[in-house]
Design brief:
This protein is α/β, with parallel strands linked by helices. It has ten helices and 17 strands. Bound molecules: zinc ion.
């Protein structure tokens, strides 16, 4: 099969579009002929590497994907050859007490597809059958691939972990990335009032089109934390979605009301920062982290995608062989929504 892979860490130049053996499904696994993949920030970090990351080379990146079932492993009866499917990238052992009680995201044998195991920048991939959902004909492969990781992540963080309620207020830091555009929609679907801090008018216009109620342009408003405070009648917000980290968490803490939750699933702005602890105890704050979500979260939020109640925002698409150019675009941060690969 054709695949995009790398033999060593580095910049986009380490990615090679080349031939690689087709993976075969073992018992309980399914081989998928991929038709689309979507890019995530994690793809860039895996390519660049970090201390302690051990990969079996060559490594194939890519968490998100959708396609057609092409081969079934022993014992798989819930799918048949040719079924259209979307992949849940959160892979767990399926046997431990956490997996058996619906907390599969906490499994000690947990892997993110494309991070520590070979992923979806390829014509074929093999995943456990539990990681596939049948895809209705009304949803394009590209759309399904683009929705998977970010809506799964946003749903788990805001709803399962964050317990977001109707009529609460949510501040989303960042207007145009995949998880943020998903978070805005999940929060609006729940009935919350959504405040968005964005870096440009263009990105805020996108947030507004997704339902954001209050827009704050941080290119014009240095102290956006104060602007949020004023916009909430000096109350602060109930929930903050902060996946930037360094540079924003201190301001996010200040934008909250008493008893608020700060949700984080990543740190595009850097992982290490100082926190003024007086905000944490003085305002009774909870900081709730998560990564991906459970199988149940995935099924729930993808149903909303299938029903058209929430929608992934699509940026550009590239052919598989141009994955390096696609990753370069992602690295610039200029994209509006998800960058996808057509396979
Ligand atoms: Zn497990």
């Amino acid at each position: 099969m054709k695949a995009v892979l790398f033999h060593q860490h580095g910049g986009p130049e380490v990615l090679e579009y080349t031939d690689f053996p087709i993976p075969e499904p073992l018992s309980g696994e399914v081989q998928v002929r991929l038709r689309a993949a979507a890019l995530n920030r994690a793809d860039l970090w895996v390519r660049e590497g970090w201390p302690g990351l051990k990969l079996e080379y060559p490594h194939i990146p890519g968490a998100d994907g959708a396609g057609e079932v092409s081969s079934l492993g022993e014992g798989v009866t819930d799918l048949k050859i040719g079924d259209r499917v979307v992949i849940n990238a959160s892979i767990s052992c399926g046997e431990c007490s956490l997996c058996l009680t619906g907390k599969d995201n906490l499994c000690r044998e947990w892997h993110l597809l494309g991070e520590t195991v070979r992923g979806t920048y390829a014509e074929y991939v093999v995943v456990p059958t539990i990681n596939l959902l049948p895809l209705p004909k009304t949803i394009e492969f590209e759309e399904a691939a683009a929705a998977g990781l970010v809506f799964h992540t946003a749903w788990h963080s805001l709803i399962t972990r964050g317990g977001l309620q109707k009529d609460e207020s949510v501040l989303v830091i960042g207007a145009s990335g995949g998880v943020n555009t998903a978070s805005i929609q999940v929060a609006k679907y729940t009935g919350a009032k959504v405040y968005v801090v964005g870096s440009s008018q263009e990105k805020l216009t996108l947030a507004e089109s997704l339902g954001a109620d209050v827009l704050i342009d941080r290119s014009k408003e240095d102290n956006w934390s104060k602007a949020v405070y004023m916009a909430t009648n000096r109350q602060g917000v109930d929930v903050v979605v902060d996946n930037v980290g360094a540079g924003t968490i201190p301001l996010s803490l200040r934008a909250t009301r008493k008893g608020a939750r700060i949700l984080t699933v990543g740190n595009t702005g850097g992982p290490v920062f100082e926190i003024d602890n007086r905000y944490i105890f003085g305002k009774h704050l909870s900081i709730l982290g998560s990564t991906m979500g459970t199988h149940s979260d995935f099924a729930t939020v993808m149903e909303l995608i299938f029903e058209g109640k929430v929608k992934p925002v699509l940026d550009r698409h590239y052919p598989l062989k141009e994955a390096a150019a696609a990753q370069e675009r992602l690295a610039t941060g200029q994209q509006m929504g998800k960058i996808t690969l057509v396979i």
